[in-house]
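Lecture 7 notes: from sequence to structure.
We start with the chain below.
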Amino acid sequence: MDLTQLLSFGQSYGDAIIAILSAGVAVISALIARGETRRQRKLQTERLRQSIDAASLDWGNGAIDTLARAAMFARTRHLQTNDGAFLANKANLMVALSTLVDRGRMFFPNLNPDKKGAEKEGAYRGHRPPVLDALMWTYHELEAMTREGGPSGEDSAAFVDECRRLLVSELQSYLDPRRKDEVVERYDDQEDGDRKDAISKSQGLKAKLETRRPGLAFGASATPNQRLQ
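Predicted structure tokens for the same chain:
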């Protein structure tokens, strides 16, 4: 092999090495870019989760505060100066509870929307989650409450306190940073055992409410707020 052939062979071999190295660099660059994309997507997802958590925590703080005020109102109802003041304060609490339920639907959608209430608007199909039940059972308890007579104020307050404990437990479960569920489906994907336990507690409170307040309407004859699902 003469010098010309050697140079030609070396050039060809060098070109092949350069091509292989270039391909390797391209692959490595693609892998680095892919990893960076994943990292950025993970950061964006975490920011979204933090934003949702912050908003739902603000909602939860308002709900806890309203339930605490409702319990105190029940304990001190006989101290209201007159029936007008009692009814005004009760109405304000009921409005606050009703709006908290609807605002809570932004974070806690109804369960099994394809199995109940097909004739209703989308947000009201299905079964209301226990975290919102806690507010609705308190709403109904206040609705039936009178300034004098009926179940004692302390009994009503104890019932509202039970509702608040259910709400706090469900909210804490939803916000738990150890949960591995998807950001916007964390509550819907709650473990069956946890969900069944919460639903059981909610139904227990409903049964207690119906015992405390005989004749309370939950069906077709109920008022619009009572028919909330």
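Points to note: Residues 58-212 form one domain. The CA atoms of residues 129 and 167 lie 10 Å apart.
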